[in-house]
């Protein structure tokens, strides 16, 4: 009896932590609240502040975590659609797996919020330990217009996402269109060998240590394949999973654009994505999801404050 009691105490003491990566571009007050909601001795928090954003004294954000360790990733340019977002995800896996062996690695945007307490979130992942929470829009092969994001070279994408009329209009939009036309004329297809397994979905995910390490080992191949592609962050993890044994560990195997697969409540029907407001409070809090996206302090701060207060008060009661 004493042996089992000692073993139980040992196991509890050795319980693995979770790593959260927050990819932030703006909404700094929201980021502060997100850090406080994730702050728990069972979590470490990794923060990426986009390289193109002028933010001074980023160590300021450490002050919002009392129990979690806070790390800052090397600042990269992560404009939507560019390979930078995939690079940030890999940088997170690389840094976090070297820091500690975590039970789960969660990728969140800076405009996400948890909808559950940390006790509830940890209990959920303990219950489903070993499952991979990765979202798929559909089974491969992907539709042709999606495939062209990765099969063609998008040399001018950085100008489309840049600043200045000349750069965006001439170098960006016109240059991109002409480049695509020429590549289609000469039948360029840089991903033909993985055409049948290339997959895509949401990059926001929660994965095990094993999958995070596997992604790191594939970094060179990923970088080679995603250079000058469009929105590769939406295909990297999905393709790795679908072409490996990790496919057997998916939490949701429907491959039908079900966001239960990654436990992020995101509404693409009313926006790109829709920004939640106070009118949606009951809907999202009763959704059963662990996290939700997208929030914006300028659009509606009330729902952010209500969720924050609800979770904080519940955690204090527990």
Structure overview:
This protein folds into two domains: 17-142 and 197-317, Spore Coat Polysaccharide Biosynthesis Protein SpsA, Chain A (Alpha-Beta Complex); 153-188, no CATH class. 40% of the residues lie in helices and 11% in strands. It has twelve helices and eight strands. The chain has helices at residues 2-13, 28-38, 84-99, 118-127, 144-151, 157-160, 165-185, 209-217, 219-226, 236-242, 281-285, 301-317; strands at residues 18-24, 43-49, 69-72, 104-109, 112-114, 206-208, 264-265, 291-293. The strands form two sheets. A five-stranded mixed β-sheet has the order 3-2-1-4-6, sandwiched between helices. Helix 2 runs parallel beside helix 12 and helix 3 crosses helix 8.
CATH domain class of the largest domain: Alpha Beta
- Gyration radius, rounded: 20 Å
CATH architecture of the largest domain: Alpha-Beta Complex
Number of beta-strand segments: 8
Helix content: 40-55%
InterPro entries: Glyco_trans_14 (IPR003406), XYLT (IPR043538)
Keywords: Disulfide bond, Endoplasmic reticulum, Glycoprotein, Glycosyltransferase, Golgi apparatus, Membrane, Metal-binding, Signal-anchor, Transferase, Transmembrane, Transmembrane helix
GO biological process, one term: heparan sulfate proteoglycan biosynthetic process
Main location: endoplasmic reticulum
């Amino acid at each position: 009896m004493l042996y089992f009691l000692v073993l139980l105490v040992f196991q509890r003491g050795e319980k693995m932590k979770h790593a959260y990566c927050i990819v932030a571009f703006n909404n700094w007050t929201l980021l502060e609240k997100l850090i406080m909601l994730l702050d728990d001795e069972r979590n470490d928090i990794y923060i990426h502040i986009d390289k193109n954003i002028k933010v001074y004294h980023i160590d300021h954000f450490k002050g919002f975590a009392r129990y979690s360790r806070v790390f800052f990733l090397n600042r990269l340019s992560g404009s939507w659609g560019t390979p930078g977002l995939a690079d940030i995800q890999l940088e997170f896996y690389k840094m976090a797996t070297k820091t500690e062996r975590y039970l789960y690695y969660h990728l969140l945007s800076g405009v996400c919020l948890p909808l559950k307490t940390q006790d509830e979130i940890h209990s959920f992942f303990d219950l489903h330990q070993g499952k991979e929470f990765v979202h798929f829009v559909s089974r491969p092969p992907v539709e042709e217009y999606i495939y062209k994001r990765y099969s063609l070279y998008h040399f001018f994408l950085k100008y489309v996402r840049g600043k200045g009329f000349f750069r965006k209009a001439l170098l960006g939009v016109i240059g991109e269109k002409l480049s695509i036309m020429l590549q289609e004329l000469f039948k360029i297809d840089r991903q033909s060998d993985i055409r049948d397994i290339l997959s895509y979905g949401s990059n926001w995910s929660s994965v095990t240590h094993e999958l995070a390490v596997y992604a790191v080992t594939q970094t060179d191949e990923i970088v080679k394949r995603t250079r000058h592609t469009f929105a590769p962050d939406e295909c990297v993890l999905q393709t790795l999973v679908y072409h490996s044994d990790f496919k057997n560990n998916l939490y949701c195997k429907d491959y039908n654009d079900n966001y239960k697969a990654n436990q992020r409540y995101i509404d693409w029907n009313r926006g790109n994505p829709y920004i939640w407001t106070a009118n949606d409070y009951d809907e999202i809090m009763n959704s059963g999801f662990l996290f939700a996206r997208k929030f914006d302090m300028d659009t509606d701060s009330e729902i952010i404050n209500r969720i924050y207060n609800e979770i904080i008060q519940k955690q204090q009661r527990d």
